[in-house]
Write a structure and sequence with these properties.
The structure holds 2 protein chains of 2 kinds. By secondary structure, chain A is mostly helical. Chain A has helices at 7-10, 21-31, 37-55, 67-70, 77-85, 88-117, 120-133, 146-159, 164-172, 175-180, 194-204, 212-221, 255-263, 268-281, 288-300, 305-313, 331-341, 350-360, 382-394, 406-417, 427-434, 438-449, 456-466, 476-488, and strands at 225-228, 231-234, 244-246, 249-251. Chain B is 33% helix and 13% strand. Chain B contains 12 helices and 12 strands. The longest helix of chain B is centred in the middle third of the chain and has 25 residues, at 223-247. The chains are: A mainly alpha, B alpha/beta. At the A-B interface, helix 11, helix 18, helix 19, helix 23 and helix 24 of A face helix 5, strand 7, helix 7 and helix 8 of B.
Chain lengths: 495, 414
């Protein structure tokens, strides 16, 4: 990667004079899902530091628990009693019902989260939580208990304004993680190394910065961190209370002791900034010297996560021209950005939404494996690109309510009662483009939707597609088709 | 759709017809599928008919080799696995010492018909027990301390298939939502992803504009935007053909009702549809059985075996079986000693399967030595790149030394 900025300059704040409309759009598209004109205006008024203060608050706003998640009884003492009382033949059915309830709750949680995350005031916190969740990964496929998934995400969100070591220590106590990486099976005398390895490889250090022996010894120190009925508990009788030696230190370490040793390693200061780069900025790794410069400073803050976000997103490097409009949106950003671009609400029809995300390659709450989503160019294959096109078109089809089943109709009514206004792009939303001549309409819609200014020929192609008769405003049907085509272009996939 | 002028030719004939009509195709050749660019620049021979096809099946998560191919005469096996060992009387015998897991009835049948080769104890030196790193190693065919950015199939494409194809068919087709690393190449080759399920939508009215826009120069072009344009172009050209082929296919075998089997059916459809595709990639999983392994593992083995048996039968009925070879791989085997959660942790070497009418069936290589210390791993017998070399040289008619960087001793299964 060619960077004009030296490591010592890269992380200095963007000069005030460079905080302009294009910079604000870049910031909002990267830390959130899109750049809405009203949000851009507000950011310019508040300034860069003020905007980041507002979007990365000391207390991140919570996602209210969906009622269906509260109702899940699997992994509760009551459910255990019920199972105990049941005849063996009935138990299977009880488990199956519980699984089904959990599955439905997951779909409900997905809709709730999408609706919450699409709101401009929560978008940045939710993207930051998604980023952390893509490091401290748990997945529905292996943790089929939605209450635990919800609480894991809640824990990440609440810890996202603290420090990285505190966050890692909370994750060690997250019941979803204890199940996902088999800490529940990690006991003195019969270690299960799954968590210990990913702790170092994926959460904190990265491959090459620890030895196989460090993993084995850490696994022993991490014994006894268990969950029962969805509550963390430390079980001294399963904890290996003997001497461990890792990273050149010997002692009777426990889990927190291991995490402290890990954060004393050099690589801990650059691992998370490196993951931020990959998630927020570019597919390419930053030069080591640049990352080290940030990492040295970050260690000095005690690994403060808010400190890191503020510094990173206000840095000169973050606003470099080569990073503008050059990053491929994730499927979630593609969808949530579409909702924001057209002021839509999430249709409460998870059984239609979930397959779309499956085909685009990102099922909320269910990353493919412990590495999380790799992102960037890996989002794009002919299959996933096709899925994005299908989704974009679907948002221009009015919801045919006569084809919904009774439950779905109730859900739609409930969403409307809760304030949802539009699940599909209406003619009213297209009208502003149908009241000006086609050249002007083309210019407006490209400015509104694409991250970079396009060449005249590009705009003319859109204008030609819009043209009614002569210079007359284009008919609505043509506006709709042109917008859909623009949403399907490679350019709209970028931010 | 007929009245809609298309900018996207999907055969060389259409390409030259459009060219003759004065459509400035070379003007946008930067983004055109590889076949358009190269075939416009040089007349190339038509491809050979009935080229050999490789189907790669990934057993994602790390398949437990010892409970797949069971060493039922080895006392160490039963000592290492008091809970998980397959009892001798349940094993589907292959010879007097090795047999398949009882869930592998489909595979056992194939073995008895002489269509299944089992390569034992496959691994590599200095094994890595990270899922991702070890998958990288298998997909890129690198040494364990070497980081390579291209896959071995991608390098085979680079090496052997750089001549111009005469149609838009992708060289590699994956039935996974992500492009597998095996396809990553230095040169551009068309690859295509068949979505996991669902019907592909018909082209809509807005396609004309989309096709125009994709040919426009863009501001601030970078690697990501060029990559997106290439992918979009390839997708538009290929999607119609694939969709029609899948929709029109009549299978000649009954496939089991599961996602993996329908993916195999789709592969059979595309092969029967005479696509020029050389390599297909599927993934089954997760085999990462740390806890309560038995039920889940057996279900996966059954899905694998029954699916492959139906696939083979279907190909035979279409007289295509002689053209197709299936190879499985998994990033690692699992620890010989079971853990206390009735599961197994990440290990090293494991057997893999090669299926086809042309294989030399039966067991190849030797069974692993299970006389290992507590919680220790197997020492591999066959390097996985020996398997790849045999497939590249003897099946795909390629040059394995060029693809793999050096010569690996071939094996007798082909």
């Amino acid at each position: 990667m060619n960077l004009a900025l030296a490591p010592s300059e890269a992380w200095q704040p963007l000069p005030k004079a460079e905080w302009d409309e294009a910079a604000a759009q870049h910031l909002l598209r990267r830390i959130g899902w899109s750049a809405q004109p009203a949000e851009v205006a507000r950011a310019l008024q508040e300034g860069l530091a003020g905007t980041l203060q507002r979007h990365f608050p000391a207390t991140p706003p919570a996602l209210p628990t969906p009622p269906s998640v509260v109702e899940i009884e699997e992994d509760t003492p009551e459910f255990a009693d019920q199972i105990k009382a049941a005849a063996p033949a009935e138990r299977r059915a009880l488990y199956q019902q519980a699984r089904e309830r959990s599955r439905n709750a997951l779909l409900d949680l997905t809709v709730n989260w999408l609706q919450h995350a699409s709101r401009p005031e929560f978008a940045v916190c939710e993207k930051w939580t998604l980023f952390l969740g893509n490091i401290y990964v748990v997945a529905a496929q292996k943790v089929p208990n939605t209450a635990l998934l919800y609480r894991h995400q809640d824990l990440l969100r609440r810890s996202s304004a603290g420090t990285a070591p505190e966050l890692t220590k909370s994750v060690l106590r997250s019941p979803a993680m204890i199940n996902y990486l088999d800490l529940q099976q990690n006991r003195a005398g019969s270690p299960n190394e799954n968590f210990a390895r990913e702790l170092m490889e994926l959460f904190t250090l990265g491959i090459g910065h620890y030895t196989e022996n460090d993993v084995k010894e850490a696994a022993r120190a991490l014994t006894g961190y268990l969950q029962r009925f969805g509550e963390f508990r430390f079980a001294p009788r399963f904890h290996d209370n003997s001497q461990k030696t890792l990273f050149g230190h010997s002692g009777n370490f426990n889990g927190d002791g291991v995490i402290d040793l890990i954060y004393a390693q050099k690589a801990a200061a650059t691992h998370l900034p490196g993951r931020m780069t990959r998630f927020y900025l570019t597919d390419e790794a930053l030069p080591e010297d640049h990352l080290n410069a940030l990492g040295d400073w970050w260690r000095g803050t005690g690994f403060g996560l808010r400190d890191l976000a503020h510094r990173y997103f206000s840095s000169r490097l973050f606003f470099e021209p080569q990073f503008r409009g050059s990053y491929i949106k994730s499927p979630l950003q593609f969808y949530l950005g579409l909702l924001q671009d057209f002021s839509l609400d999430v249709a409460p029809l998870p059984r239609r939404i979930e397959p779309a995300f499956r085909q685009m390659g990102q099922i909320p709450y269910d990353p493919p494996n412990v590495r999380g989503w790799v992102g960037g160019r890996e989002w794009i294959s002919s299959a996933t690109l096709e899925a994005r096109r299908v989704l974009a078109r679907a948002l221009f089809q009015p919801l045919d309510e006569s084809r919904l089943n009774a439950d779905e109709q109730r859900a739609v009514e409930a969403a409307r009662a809760a304030g949802a206004k539009a699940f599909a792009v209406s003619d009213d939303a297209l009208r502003p483009y149908a009241t000006v001549n086609s050249d002007e309409a083309a210019m407006r819609l490209l400015q509104r939707l694409l991250p970079a200014t396009q060449a005249d020929a590009y705009r003319r192609a859109v204008g030609d597609a819009l043209t009614g008769e002569g210079q007359a405003p284009p008919p609505l049907a043509r506006v709709r088709n042109a917008i859909v085509a623009v949403l399907e272009t490679p350019e709209y996939q970028l931010c | 759709m007929k009245n809609h002028p298309s900018f996207l030719p999907s055969t060389r004939r259409e390409f030259f017809t459009l060219g003759a009509k004065g459509v400035g195709l070379l003007a946008f050749s930067r983004y055109a599928p590889a076949f358009l660019v190269s075939s416009a620049r040089a007349e190339t021979p038509t491809p050979q008919k009935d080229m050999p096809i490789l189907v790669i099946v990934q057993l994602a998560g790390g398949n437990d080799g010892l409970n797949t191919v069971v060493p039922f005469e080895d006392d160490h096996y039963y000592q290492l696995r008091p809970n998980l060992a397959v009892p001798k009387n349940k094993v589907l015998q292959l010879d007097d010492r090795a047999g398949l897991n009882p869930a592998c009835a489909g595979l056992h049948q194939l073995a008895q018909e002489g269509k299944l080769a089992i390569v034992q104890n496959v691994g590599y030196p200095n094994p890595n027990r990270s899922h991702f790193r070890s998958t990288d190693i298998w997909e890129t065919a690198s040494d364990s301390n070497e980081f390579v950015s291209t896959g071995f199939v991608g390098r085979y494409f680079d090496n052997c298939c750089s001549g111009a194809p005469v149609n838009s068919d992708p060289l590699g087709v994956h039935l996974t939502s992500e492009v597998p690393e095996v396809f990553f190449a230095d040169k551009d080759h068309a690859t295509f992803g068949v979505p996991p399920y669902g019907n592909r939508r018909q082209r809509s009215e807005n396609l004309g504009l989309l096709e125009k826009l994709i040919h426009q120069p863009v501001q601030g072009e970078n690697g990501s935007s060029s990559y997106l344009r290439h992918t979009m172009m390839d997708a538009l050209v290929t999607e119609r053909k694939v969709g029609e082929t899948l929709n029109g296919y009549q299978a000649s075998a009954v496939y089991p009702q599961n996602a993996f089997a329908s993916e195999l059916r789709n592969v059979a459809a595309l092969i029967a549809g005479r696509l020029s595709t050389r390599v297909y990639f599927l993934s089954l999983g997760s085999f990462d059985t740390h806890v309560n392994q038995q039920g889940r593992h057996e279900q996966l083995l059954k899905t694998l075996g029954d699916g492959l048996a139906a696939f083979q039968k279907d190909l035979e009925a279409h007289r295509l079986a002689d053209q197709v070879l299936v190879m499985t791989f998994s990033e690692f085997g699992r620890r010989p000693m079971e853990n206390d959660g009735k599961g197994t942790d990440h290990g090293t070497a494991a057997p893999l399967f090669v299926m086809g009418s042309k294989v030399k069936a039966g067991l190849h290589g030797t069974a692993p030595d299970l006389n290992v210390d507590r919680n220790q791993d197997l020492a591999y017998g066959i390097d996985f790149r020996q398997v790849y070399a045999s497939v590249i040289d003897r099946w795909l008619a390629g040059d394995s030394a060029a693809v793999l960087g050096r010569k690996f001793a071939p094996l007798g299964f082909l």
